[in-house]
Amino acid sequence: MKMQYRVNEQIRAHEVRIVGDDIESVVMPLTRALQLAEQKGADLVEISPNAEPPVCRIIDYSKFLYQQKKRQKEIKAKQVKVEVKEIRFGPQTDEHDYNFKLKHAQTFLSEGDKVKAYVFFRGRSILFKEQGEVLLLRFANDLEEYGKVEQMPTLEGKRMIIFISPKKVTPKKEKEGNETENTEKEMRVAPKQKARKEYTGPKVEGEDF
Question: What count of other Cβ atoms lies within 10 Å of the Cβ of residue 11?
């Protein structure tokens, strides 16, 4: 990151535009800008070299780099990595298999992943393409609470495909952290609950079972 910005005497322009939180945007000679930065005990940092004239800020360079890194981390944290999970059906999928795959799709969508569901037609089973479309539309309807249809069923070769994107995203790490926290809490509470359940004798004053 240090190589991305010119600082102080590294700046080559004769004039620069100074911007900042406490400085009104103004164009001045580079020599004047360097003097102003020195008076403030800070650095002159070129933040937009391609502007005419180049845009600079008067700021402590270490603080500037810290702010840039912090901003990049915040942007990266907000980006949600979306994976596409595939679910395959046959044109005559039985009810048990359908429900099994429906449950998996609910999990995928709950975790923020997209679902690509398709019906694969083998040989003459392509004659049942309308049945495959009905199956995918039913699948999308049953997932209405978890996702929305991104692309209606389309036939591509021997596959009829539908895409469903998630409505709500639950970060996997946060979910796993909550599950771990709940498990640890249960482990701490369990011995005491067990003691209360097993103890059948008279209650002794001052003791808590």
Answer: 19
Position 44 pLDDT exceeds 50: yes
Tell me if 92 sits within 8 A of 128, measured CB to CB.
yes
Name the nearest CA neighbour of 37 among 4, 1, 2, 64: 64
Q: Which residues pair with 48 in a beta bridge?
A: 55
- Cis preceding-peptide flag for 53 (omega within 30 of 0): yes
Which residues make beta-bridge pairs with 87? 117
Superfamily of domain 84-166 in the CATH hierarchy: Translation initiation factor 3 (IF-3), C-terminal domain (3.30.110.10)
- pLDDT at site 105: 93
Task: Please determine, for residue 154, whether its predicted confidence score (pLDDT) is greater than 70.
Answer: yes
Query: Tokens 């180049």 label which residue?
Result: 54
* Contacts for 16 with CB less than 8 Å, ≥ 6 apart: 27, 28, 30, 33, 44, 46, 53, 54, 55, 56
- The pLDDT score that the predictor gives to residue 116 is 92
Alpha-carbon span 122 to 132, nearest angstrom: 12
7 and 46 Cβ atoms separated by less than 8 Å: yes
The token duo for 181 is 């926290």
Q: How many other CB atoms are there within 10 angstroms of residue 128's CB atom?
A: 16
CATH number attached to the domain at 2-76: 3.10.20.80
What's residue 106's pLDDT? 92
Residues with Cβ < 8 Å from 36, sequence gap 6 or more?
A: 18, 28, 44, 58
